[in-house]
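Lab notes, practical 5.
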Amino acid sequence: MKQHPAWGVDATSVAVRGVQINVGADGKPRLAAWDVVDFTPEVEDLGSLQRFAIMGRGLFHFLSRHKLNRSRCWVSLRAETAFNRTVVVPPVNDESLDKILEYEAQQQVPHPLEEVYWDRRVIAIREDGEVLATLFAIKRAMVVDRLRKFEKSKFPIDGIQLRPLALHNFCAFERLLEPGTIVIDVDYSGLNVLIHHDDQTWFRVLPVGGVDFITRLRETFDCEHREAVRMASGQAQIPDKALFDACRSEVAQDIADEVVKTIRYYVAAKPEVRPSGVVLFESHGCVPPLSGALKRTLDMPVFRPKGFRQLEVDPDVVTAGIQEHFPALAKAVGLALQGVGKAEIEVRLFPDDLERSLDSSKIGYFVAAACVLLAILLAGWNRRSEADEVAVGRASLASVFESAQDKAAVEEELKSEAPLDSIRELKAPAKGRTGPMPLVARLYESQATWDKGPAPQIVAVRYAAADLDKVEVVLAFQIGYRDAAGKGIDPEEAMEAFARKLIDGKTVIAVRGGQKWDAGRVTHEPPIKQEDRLLRYRYRHRTYTLTVGGES
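Output from the prediction step:
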């Protein structure tokens, strides 16, 4: 199966950063493209609604440089209000684990579950059988609002992930996470703190960053926002170097103090945690240097990654700019890694139907269907032509059917000088094979009238214009589903019974089962990478090839 490349796009209030990753024949991901669109000078107030219009222009500018229609696109989501907590549950089987973790989520998440998108990651099963899992949740309104902003810019999306988790996936892939590692990512408008221990990662987002330095410079030098940004990023002359350095040191220490408070809070709740070192990302040019302040305050080594260690980079994209923007691209890389199925944390906090179909053959089916529909419309228009046009057509058809046995019947139909059919007749079902529309109607009618418990989901209907006799249907049914009496329903039996019911001798005359697969969500094709983790929901899928009768 073709592996599509993936773009990871980290869109913030002041920049759009993107990385494209593809997977080679050896299965290794490779960075194939990158881009940064920075509009910090234009965003004077992070609380102003104007920033959304500026971000929209940034997204449009990004789209004008890159074609995303044949790549997966994963975008970032702010995580200030996101929930994450690790829980321990007693030894249970897979089915009971789903239920007990859902119960834990109901107890732990500070919102009703119907108001959030939530998922969990099973971290480990201890020797005594206890299960260690982390719960993640985010308000649905946050996700919907984020998706709406991208849709307004015509930006395609296949997945969305919290920024701290994207950062974790990058660090895990680059092998930067050791027991006790503290990851600090300082951006313009926020700071992510990740604490990693015992294969679990806890995060907190703080509202401090480069914007604090800009505010201090504006107050100290009485300058405009644009000038302060140019000074902080080294693009403008500094009026008073000593005063500038003092401002930078003070802001850096303030940020370090906020980090220390967060770490002490977590260590107080988890006394077994022993912080061992800091991995620091300064993700924006306006962030003051923090390495010295963190070393003094935390009294532990601080490591600043300077480039990719594990991720291969296409030689064509190795430029001085990628080194300069490396810290800012870390979260975008984490997003793209999840897009190609190479992320350590793959929780899904977004609607199940968000992912697009990029299979060209599926697009061909829709094109073929459009061509068939266009042909029908043109035929209808020709049928309403004037009598002389009908006569011309009659003469042409006479020559075509000259050797046919039903020539007399055709001539009989063409005797009239009026249009061939009325508008009402055009609306009636056409004779012959004009497409699978009657079959589609048959499918959903069968689903609506299904009386043997829950009906399987109809995931996809696929056909080719060159062979309308065969239509492929993908069905799905939840694994482990139980009816009101508590009796388990076998997914394959339910789908098989539903498929057999479709046979009516007219619309459908035969059904043949095909490929099967399991996935953590309803999908129109097998997943690129099989899930090796315990899932909250699992769905059995199967394709069926339907032999269509003469009425479809």
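Observations recorded by the TA: The radius of gyration is 30 Å. Confidence is low (pLDDT under 50) at residues 403-434.
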